[in-house]
Write a structure and sequence with these properties.
This protein is 60% helix and 4% strand. The chain is mainly α. The protein has a domain at 48-168: dinb family like domain (Four Helix Bundle (Hemerythrin (Met), subunit A), Up-down Bundle). Strand 1 (133-136) and strand 2 form a beta hairpin. The relative contact order is 0.18. Keywords: Metal-binding.
């Protein structure tokens, strides 16, 4: 069994090396499509949670539903500002603590505005610029990688919101991979 597994791994490495296999960088068009889908998916989450669920916390020590979404929002702004060099319109604001953003209407607008900032930031770049390195704090990475990290972050927190919605007795939106 070990021999068969070893041979399979060796064959796969050989194929990847000599077949021209590569992981191609994403294009602005591809990233725009993915972020637009993420925006629509997040909107479905915001729509699913009723007004009385905005302050809902499954346990006292964790973020409320609104705070989860505002945390996602702040990160969308921070990552995009770092990736594009555009000024962060929310710089210095602690969104999670701003009670005026925690109604369903205000929260939805604020979250959707953050996705618009991401989308405008991506569309303002060329495919070549996505490969350029930028800094975020002590870390340096390509703009594409920075947007990938932002995408991972918003996916993580939207995923956490699934539990909040379920605990309120509501079926969360279906997965939206494509």
């Amino acid at each position: 069994m070990k021999q068969k597994l070893g041979f399979t791994a060796l064959a796969l490495m050989f194929w990847m090396t000599f077949s021209g296999f590569s992981i191609k960088p994403k294009t602005v068009a591809q990233m725009t499509t993915e972020w637009q889908r993420a925006k629509e998916f997040t909107k479905e989450y915001l729509d699913a949670m009723p007004e009385d669920g905005m302050g809902y916390k499954p346990t006292p020590e964790i973020r409320s539903f609104a705070e989860q979404m505002l945390h996602l929002t702040a990160a969308n702004y921070n990552f995009t500002a770092a990736a594009t060099g555009k000024a962060n319109p929310m710089q210095g604001k602690k969104l999670e603590t701003m009670d005026e953003l925690k109604s369903k209407t205000a929260l939805t607008k604020t979250v959707m505005d953050s996705y618009d900032f991401v989308l405008e930031g991506i569309k303002g770049l060329s495919d070549a610029q996505l490969a350029e390195n930028v800094k975020m704090g002590p870390r340096e990475m390509s703009r594409e990688t920075m947007f990938a990290k932002a995408f991972e972050h918003q996916t993580h927190h939207r995923g956490q919101a699934t539990i909040y919605i379920r605990m309120k007795g509501i079926k969360p939106p279906n997965e939206k991979l494509f």
